[in-house]
Amino acid sequence: MIQRIHHINFIVRDLVSAIPAWERILDREVTSCDQLEERGVDIARFDLGQTWIVLVQPTRSGTVPAAHLEQHGEGFFLMSLETDSLQDEVGRLGEAMFDGVERGGLDDWQVRDVDVAGMFGVRVQLVESDGS
Amino acid sequence: MIQRIHHINFIVRDLVSAIPAWERILDREVTSCDQLEERGVDIARFDLGQTWIVLVQPTRSGTVPAAHLEQHGEGFFLMSLETDSLQDEVGRLGEAMFDGVERGGLDDWQVRDVDVAGMFGVRVQLVESDGS
Lengths: 132, 132
What we know:
2 copies of one chain form a homodimer.
Chain A lengths: L1 E10 L3 H12 L5 E5 L4 E8 L2 E8 L5 H9 L2 E9 L2 H8 L4 E7 L5 E5 L9 E5 L4
Parallel strand pairs in A: 1-4, 5-8
Antiparallel strand pairs in A: 1-5, 2-3, 3-4, 6-7, 7-8
C-alpha cells in the first residue's frame, strides 16, 4: 500500500550554497549529510515531519543524477513514495512499470524506480524502509 | 512554523490522460476535480495522507502554469509548505523572499510564492489553511 511521500529529491550543483537557503526557508537545520558513492552523489537531508527533503549533488559524470542536472539544470529530481512492501507493489503494477532493478538508498531504504516515460514527466520511485 | 509538505503540483497537458496513470501508481482514486478560473487551470487532486498530490492542467495561455508548461514541459511545478501563519513566515523571511502577493488556492488555502530565483531551481510556496 502506498502510504505517503517518503522523500523528495532536488538536484543542486553545490550543496554548500544550497543548504543555507533551504535551512532558511524550512526554518530548521540540515539533519545530516551523506555520500552515496555507487550513485555518484553527495546528499543533504532535512526532516520535514513525515517526509525527507533531500538535496542531491552529483559528484561525477555518467550517472543518472548527473545526466539529469546536465539536461534539466537544478530543481526537482524525483518523488519517492513509501510502501510497506516493494514486492507487493511490483506484483500489483507489473515489472514493465519499472526501470532497472531494486537498489539501496540511504540508511535501510530499498528503492525501485518507476519508468519515467509513463508518468507525464515525473520521476517516481517506490521505497520500502523499516526505519526512517 | 513550517510543518509539512501540504501539496505538490505537477503540470500535465491533459488531465483525462494523466489521472488514470496516477490512480494506478498511487493505488487510489482521484479525490476531486476542480477549476481555478483566475489561475487558468483545471485541477485533480489525490489525498496521500498528509499531502495532496495535485495535477494541474493549464486551460489558457498567459498564465504562470501555462508558461511553465511551455518552457519546461510536463512535470514538477511547485511544492507548497504548510505553515500555521503566513504572516509570521513573511515576517521571518522578509518580503523580498517572495514573488507577488498573497492569493487564494483551492478550498481555504491562502498561498504566497517564494521567489524562485533563490531556491536553486525549485518553485516553493507557503500555504496556510485551517482545514484540509
